[in-house]
Specification:
The chain is of the alpha/beta class and 273 residues long. It is built from eight helices and ten strands. Strand 7 and strand 8 form a beta hairpin.
Length: 273
């Protein structure tokens, strides 16, 4: 449907990981992605980054046929928590607790998730994709590309948080379809072959106790179709493009992230008055 062409003026770059933010609160998305306003990272956000970096080391070493070391992964986790490359607000979770949680979830990922997956790509940086008719450029780094038993390729993404996996073991997948759709489109374009297997969410719950630390795998069917739409019905990208092109960055005061902690535009936002 959309034409992939050489970059030109009036093209707005959209990171895959930011698209859900755009639909939740366009004003927050504008502040972070167009105006480059920043808040200190939350403690659990930093913990998620640390876990992500640690298990990426494990998966990458396995991918290239090298012996993976849990000690190396633990060192990466420690470094990411104690020497972050960004300002972090540790009010809600101190660094010692964060490292303890991270070590536990890293081990759960290594023993319960990684062995069940056949990864063919780890931290895959794809070329950006220009959709000229929509005026947007898709960008993103794909956590994982996996191959299922039928030989089909799919996208995998690691998600951490207090509610990533329920007590029943069910992984929260709602809200992740736009991001997974972009990753699927980028991967298919980069690989020059279909990426048709369901997208997988590797969920890890960042609870303080082992009892509450659940891990699991959830799947999202056909995220690219939801993103791109059909001849009869527009996809999410068409809606996103209209918001961006027309500059309609309205606020959502009912958003769960509408607070000074999460939104750099909070103090000046007229939509929450």
């Amino acid at each position: 449907m959309n034409a992939f062409v050489t970059p030109r003026k009036n093209i707005v770059s959209v990171r895959a990981s930011s698209l859900s933010d755009l639909f939740d609160c366009p004003a927050r998305w504008e502040a972070k992605n167009l105006l480059n306003k920043r808040n200190p990272a939350g403690a659990r956000t930093r913990l998620g980054t640390a876990i992500h970096e640690a298990v990426t080391q494990w998966d990458y070493q396995n991918l290239i046929g090298e012996e993976a070391s849990t000690e190396e992964c633990e060192e990466i986790l420690h470094h990411q928590i104690w020497q972050p490359n960004e300002e972090v607000d540790w009010t809600d979770l101190d660094q010692n607790s964060a490292e303890s949680i991270g070590q536990s979830l890293m081990q759960k990922y290594i023993t319960q998730i990684a062995p069940t997956q056949k990864f063919i790509g780890v931290e895959v940086r794809c070329e950006s994709l220009i959709l000229a008719d929509l005026g947007i450029e898709l960008t993103g780094t794909i956590d994982r590309i996996y191959e299922n038993e039928a030989g089909e390729l799919g996208i995998g993404d690691i998600k951490t948080g207090k509610n990533s996996v329920g007590n029943d073991g069910v992984v929260k997948t709602s809200g992740h379809t736009p991001q997974m759709g972009i990753y699927t489109v980028l991967a298919s374009h980069a690989l020059q072959e279909p990426v048709t297997a369901p997208s997988r969410i590797y969920g890890l719950t960042t609870a303080k106790t082992d009892k509450g630390q659940h891990v699991g795998i959830g799947e999202i069917e056909s995220p690219a179709q939801v993103l791109l739409g059909t001849e009869e019905e527009p996809g999410l990208l068409q809606y996103a493009a209209k918001v961006i092109k027309n500059g309609v960055f309205f606020g959502n005061s009912k958003s769960m992230l509408c607070s000074e902690k999460f939104c750099p535009a909070f103090s000046t936002c007229k939509f929450r008055k």
